[in-house]
Amino acid sequence: MAIAETFVARVFGRAPSEATSGPHRDSRRRVPVWSWVTRRCRIGARRDSSDARRRPDLTRGHRAAREARCFCSLRIKEPTVIKSHGYAAKHSFSRLKLFDFDREEAGADEVEIAVMYCGVCHSDVHQVKNEWSNTVYPCMPGHEAVGKVTRVGANVTRHAVGDIVGVGCMIDSCRSCPACLAGFENYCEGPNSWLATYNGPMVPAKKAPTGENMYGRDNTMGGYSDTLVVKQDFVLKIPAGLRPEAAAPILCAGVTTYSPLRHWKVQAGDKVGILGFGGLGHMAAKIAKAMGAQVTVFTSTREKLDEAARLGVEGVMEDDKKALAPLKASFDFILSTVPQKHNVNPFVELLKRDKTLVAVGALEPLAPINNMETAMHRKSVAGSLIGSIAETQEVLDFCARHGIGPDIEIIPIQQVNDAYDKVEDGEVRFRYVIDMATLADEVKD
Ligand SMILES: [Zn+2]
Ligand SMILES: [Zn+2]
């Protein structure tokens, strides 16, 4: 045995090949081997040392050590990568096209997923075009992914190979802030906020108070790809009653509308208004109706009044003053799904005293709120962002139980750029879902 190997064998009580084989526990020391390695590696991983102490399960510490070529890096196994393919944009002005990249194989707590379907969300379009000024390129969108589990890490207990699972907007969070501890990862207050499924983390290192990146990744690649590797806690179970392609949009559009309906305690018999009748709006209408609410949708597109009738809800043109006048002070809750700056004041007038209008579509300033109206009747205008992992599972189960799901149009990945144009023009009826099997037509290897 070589000198270095003898040393390692003494410290670990086993041959070095065993020490590099995974996050198992050393029965003699009763300390996770990787934890010891991570602490030992602080010379090489200075930048990450505080977080490595708190989260020894993270692989980032090991990566940092390897890059720094510190003492311990000699014994750290290089992660095996999965050659992956997807559709990405290289610049804000370029279209999405085939992009080859590597994903690290599943770690002990991770699940590997062969993506079957991925929904097209309006925020994908915003992100690809850098409309929020935070896009990191190449940008591979997709946060409504459903697929089959192909491999699980050693510690995974929640999912098994062959399960149909979903991945929504988040793939990790800090897990230690008040929001995370309360089960609301979507409001994570950690230095980097939550780790978005693509273009993550939400707060990159350069904007974090500490200048660090606890996730070790500054540009995650989303579900417009053939594979995803995700921590088991952030992987959702798709109930048997939901078709995988129909489940995909529930992972963002569904939970984004379900979460505020639940938080503001919408009940059977409540009068609920939905402003905007696209991808989010039609899911909101279906979910609120399934909750037993009396639903009215406000739309700017006359043809969508027929769609409202088809769903069994009231449809009103949002600029029809004659139709709006008798609705004043009659709603228990209004959800605005309009995806850009808009004037909510005419709809705040429709709320009863003490009730709330929640905007989920526009992540930007709204037109100024008329506080005379809100003060005179103690009304609120609020916001809400996607939903927690628990709420995402809840809405999937809710949709399966009530036999509801989004109206979808399945497209091959090769049509995704045209789909984006239609999403921007508001032509969609109502959610595009990409059949990821069509990616194979372009992949050579
Ligand atoms: Zn989305
Ligand atoms: Zn957190």
UniProtKB/TrEMBL annotation:
<keyword id="KW-0560">Oxidoreductase</keyword>
<dbReference type="InterPro" id="IPR029752">
    <property type="entry name" value="D-isomer_DH_CS1"/>
</dbReference>
<dbReference type="InterPro" id="IPR020843">
    <property type="entry name" value="ER"/>
</dbReference>
<dbReference type="InterPro" id="IPR047109">
    <property type="entry name" value="CAD-like"/>
</dbReference>
<keyword id="KW-0479">Metal-binding</keyword>
<comment type="similarity">
    <text>Belongs to the zinc-containing alcohol dehydrogenase family.</text>
</comment>
<dbReference type="InterPro" id="IPR011032">
    <property type="entry name" value="GroES-like_sf"/>
</dbReference>
<dbReference type="GO" id="GO:0008270">
    <property type="term" value="F:zinc ion binding"/>
</dbReference>
<dbReference type="Pfam" id="PF00107">
    <property type="entry name" value="ADH_zinc_N"/>
</dbReference>
<feature type="domain" description="Enoyl reductase (ER)">
    <location>
        <begin position="91"/>
        <end position="434"/>
    </location>
</feature>
<dbReference type="InterPro" id="IPR036291">
    <property type="entry name" value="NAD(P)-bd_dom_sf"/>
</dbReference>
<dbReference type="Pfam" id="PF08240">
    <property type="entry name" value="ADH_N"/>
</dbReference>
<dbReference type="InterPro" id="IPR013154">
    <property type="entry name" value="ADH-like_N"/>
</dbReference>
<dbReference type="InterPro" id="IPR002328">
    <property type="entry name" value="ADH_Zn_CS"/>
</dbReference>
<protein>
    <submittedName>
        <fullName>Alcohol dehydrogenase catalytic domain-containing protein</fullName>
    </submittedName>
</protein>
<dbReference type="GO" id="GO:0008106">
    <property type="term" value="F:alcohol dehydrogenase (NADP+) activity"/>
</dbReference>
<dbReference type="InterPro" id="IPR013149">
    <property type="entry name" value="ADH-like_C"/>
</dbReference>
<keyword id="KW-0862">Zinc</keyword>
